[in-house]
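Query structure, 170 tokens:
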């Protein structure tokens, strides 16, 4: 009984056709391939060693990453991971720059709602907007209260001295 054919999984990143040895770090082409597969290939250390072509991938991967057998490979992995952390890190500066570009592009293309949303997010990022909400439990039967009683009750709850607006409020 044959099952349905498996879908081919999309590749997250394009795998280089060839790996060269890295003279600067002092690692071979096969070790460089292991470093790439381990850091960018979205696979385990054993799978990275298998893809790099090692004969005994589990053993080779352990030796590559233990720091004693191949310290140059361990250093190359650490450098590559640091490089990727910096490349993909989310910082307020990167976010602000991206939101500003979105706002400008959206406005130029006539997508004003998107531009306003991006500006709102920029203001939120800058700390210019503060979302506040307050829940007040009144515990009163408003239907049985007169309007004067409601005003007095609200003044007590909210600490307001008066509910009537001044002319300067308009």
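Result returned for the query:
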């Amino acid at each position: 009984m044959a099952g349905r054919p498996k879908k081919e999984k999309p590749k997250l990143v394009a795998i280089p056709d060839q790996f060269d040895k890295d003279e600067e770090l002092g690692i071979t082409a096969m070790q460089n391939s292991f470093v790439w597969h381990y850091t960018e290939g979205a696979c385990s250390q054993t799978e990275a060693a298998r893809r790099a072509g090692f004969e005994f991938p589990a053993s080779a991967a352990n030796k590559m990453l233990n720091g004693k057998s191949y310290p140059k490979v361990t250093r190359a992995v650490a450098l590559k991971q640091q490089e990727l952390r910096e490349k993909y890190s989310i910082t307020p500066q990167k976010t602000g720059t991206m939101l500003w570009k979105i706002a400008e592009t959206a406005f130029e293309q006539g997508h004003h709602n998107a531009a306003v949303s991006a500006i709102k997010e920029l203001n939120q990022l800058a700390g210019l907007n503060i979302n506040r909400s307050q829940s007040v439990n009144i515990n009163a039967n408003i239907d049985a209260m007169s309007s004067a009683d409601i005003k007095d009750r609200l003044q007590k709850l909210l600490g307001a001295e008066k509910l009537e607006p001044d002319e300067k409020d308009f």
